[in-house]
Amino acid sequence: MKRSVTAATAMALALATFGVQQIAATDAVRNGVTAKRIIAADSTPGEWLTTGRSYSEQRFSPLTQINTATAGKLGLAWFSDLDTARGQEATPLMVGGKLFVSTAWSKVRAFDASTGKPLWSFDPKVPRETLVKACCDAVNRGVAAWGNKIYVGTLDGRLIALDAATGKQLWSVVTVDQSKAYTITGAPRIIKGRVIIGNGGAEYGVRGYITAYDAESGKQLWRFYTVPGDPAKGPEPAYLQQAAKTWTGEWWKLGGGGTVWDSMAYDPDLDLLYIGVGNGSPWNQKIRSPQGGDNLYLSSVVALKPETGTYAWHFQETPAESWDFTAAQHIVLADLTIDGKPRKVLMHAPKNGFFYVIDRTNGQFISANNYAPVTWAKSIDPKTGRPDVNPDSRYALTGKPVVQMPGPSGAHSWHPMAFDPKQKLMFIPAQIAAFPYIPATDWKAAPIGFNVGVDMGAAAMPADPKVRAAAEAATRGELIAWDPIKQAPRWKVDYPAANNGGVLATAGGLVLQGNSKGHFNVYASATGKKLWSMPVQTGIIAAPITYAVGGQQYVAVMAGSGGVFSLAPGVVNGQIRNISRLLVFKLGGTARLPAAPPLSQTPLDPPPVTGTPEQIALGADRYGRYCGVCHGDAAVAGPIVPDLRHSGVLGDASAWQTITQDGALKEQGMVSFAKVMTPAETDAIRHYIIKRANEDKALVAKGEGADVR
Q: In whole angstroms, what is the distance from residue 107 CA to residue 319 CA?
């Protein structure tokens, strides 16, 4: 009898929860998304109104229908194929029974959240040549909702408002200087009727900032710069005058960096917006700020007043940043009891490998410890929070190469974490990878390509298949259940590759995450035990959400390999085909994916090597600086871009120049490089690729290598 009463009570509570959600759905259609509704997110647990579900960005859902006892019954409810075979990184929103999601190339689509019926689609028609400005694929991490509008930032730097019912464009503003290498890949946040958006481009030589626009009209309300500008242009706000004291040389001519390209969080009680600031431009501080200095506000968390953009406080995690250690990773807010005292904290696992707990009321450092292998710093000062940097890691000062962990991909990158406030655990999608930082010689800024002050050609993955295999074996991922109070892991799940998906935690005792090898997994959040897994034919790098419609709980996730790990290191992260889809699961789901086509196995058949050693050496250098970031180290491409070793125009010098100098394929993202290279230099790249293709063909013939394409 007790068990029957308990079961009945549980069922009644579940129905009540879903009933609240249904009422909320009706209210959403009538009144739209408001600050009150986002702040009270737990009262409508079936919806997902902002990218982190709530302003605290915990990505924790109170829904419990899918739990440790029922997770094994999950199945595919429905799916939708996408028309953009690039990396898919977006977090969907669910508002009023509708699912809204952005895709690669900044497109937006709306679906019926229960049936998957397409409702509308919007294409901002981003010029494909914009891709040359993007370090890490044509990705987009999500939309924002406010009132009855949907907002998206586009790769070419626009902020667009759409009618949530129809997808019709209502207004559009250009929020960057489109003559420079700015991009937008992050999701907007909306606070007090202000749409807040940052940008990327620090690798290419820009100055970072974040801007607020009126949600109704698109009028610019404020702009906050993250690094000081040219002193000759007049006095700047006090916070930038203070920052300028930490810079030397003429950094403003190189941009400075500090782009706010992803994470934000908001505390409505303190009325503070928290932003994560990116890396320096160039990475090499000796070029950027020759006499050193902390270089504020690079690699910092900064608190602002959202109505005015007024500076409140900052905490810098990597002073004198020189390694692409951005602080733009996921920011999470929570209340914790530390040393017997309640603290309002901000938690952060930036690229540099240390997990930070900071007092979010004033920026006071509380604690930090490394959550992944770290060699660039010995420890964090327990009083100040400053790192004790390994002197050998200061390649900009020593002028000597150094191999260290983490590298520019970070111990944790943009992939969102999730926090379980009941268990007081943070779930971190970490990655373990080293990188050789080699100072560039005779470096000059260029209008196209990476401007990082590091010899990217020399740092590229070597052609030797044995060395590549060793590098692949040493590059891996982890899902870490991290105790932020003890600053220690409680459990870990190992992955054979990096670039695994963002994370969702639920009150059902679950952690949900896809991985780069093509599986969507459900774990018990208390122990890390795998409860369910499904192969999905492609890598998952985005974060899932969960929502409820009509008494049914669903889980939605974007699938599609991409991002930097599918580009620059080539095959080091595995040959996983990009099949871009929106996948939606439920208990008892019976939908089936169609059979996946196999990866192409076109044999290597390059023309003979005719280039001189000097030409090939020049081509290797230019390829490393301008081509490898997309087409892969040592000309071995990942699965989402053409592998140039197989190019049909390698033997046709004239056709090659038509592409590389004249921009014949700019609509496919392959722009002209005439601004930065002569025809002789681009032809040298052709000779280098021919040599590489012949090397790999010979290895395949001897059985010592594999032509994976």
A: 37
Report yes or no on 670 lying in a domain.
Answer: yes
**Please, what's the b/e burial string for 151-189 (b: 16 or more CB within 10 A of its CB; e: otherwise)?**
bbbbbbbbbbbbebeebeebbebebbeeebbbbbbbbbb
Comparing C-alpha atoms, which of 541, 515, 545, 544 is closest to residue 530? 515
Q: How far apart are CA 31 and CA 521, in angstroms?
A: 36
Average pLDDT taken over every residue of the chain: 92
| Cα–chain center distance at 293 | 28
Q: Containing H/E element for 694?
A: helix 679-701
The domain spanning residue 676 has which CATH number? 1.10.760.10
Distance between CA atoms of 279 and 83, rounded to whole angstroms?
A: 32
Q: Which domain holds residue 697?
A: 613-701
Helix axes 679-701, 653-660, angle to 10 degrees: 120
Q: How many residues does the chain have?
A: 709
User: Does residue 617 sit within a domain?
Assistant: yes
Give which of 35, 26, 62, 10 is closest to 505, Cα–Cα. Answer: 62
Note if the pTM is more than 0.90.
yes
Compute the distance between CA of residue 210 and CA of residue 625 in angstroms, rounded to an integer: 29
- Domain for residue 311, yes or no? no
The pLDDT value recorded for residue 601 is 64
Report how far residue 106's alpha carbon sits from residue 154's, in angstroms, rounded to the nearest whole number.
Answer: 5
Beta strands in 103-235 (DSSP E): 108-112, 118-122, 144-146, 149-153, 158-163, 169-174, 189-191, 194-197, 209-214, 220-225
Any domain includes 646: yes
CA distance 331 to 323: 20
Q: How far apart are CA 446 and CA 575, in angstroms?
A: 32
Reduced 3-state DSSP string for 223-250: EEECCCCCHHHCCCCHHHHHHHCCCCCC
Q: Is the dihedral of CA 696, 702, 705, 709 positive or negative?
A: positive
HSE at residue 528, side-chain half, CA atoms within 13 A, is 16
Residue 695 burial by Cβ neighbours in a 10 Å radius (0-12, 13-18, 19+) = buried
Coil, strand or helix at 113? coil
Confidence band (pLDDT; 50, 70, 90) for 469? Answer: confident
Q: Which residues contact 398 (CB under 8 A, 6 or more apart)?
A: 391, 392
Overall domain count for the chain: 2
Please tell me which residue in 267, 294, 324, 683 is annotated as part of the active site.
Answer: 324
- 324 has catalytic annotation: yes
> According to the model, what pLDDT value does residue 19 have?
38
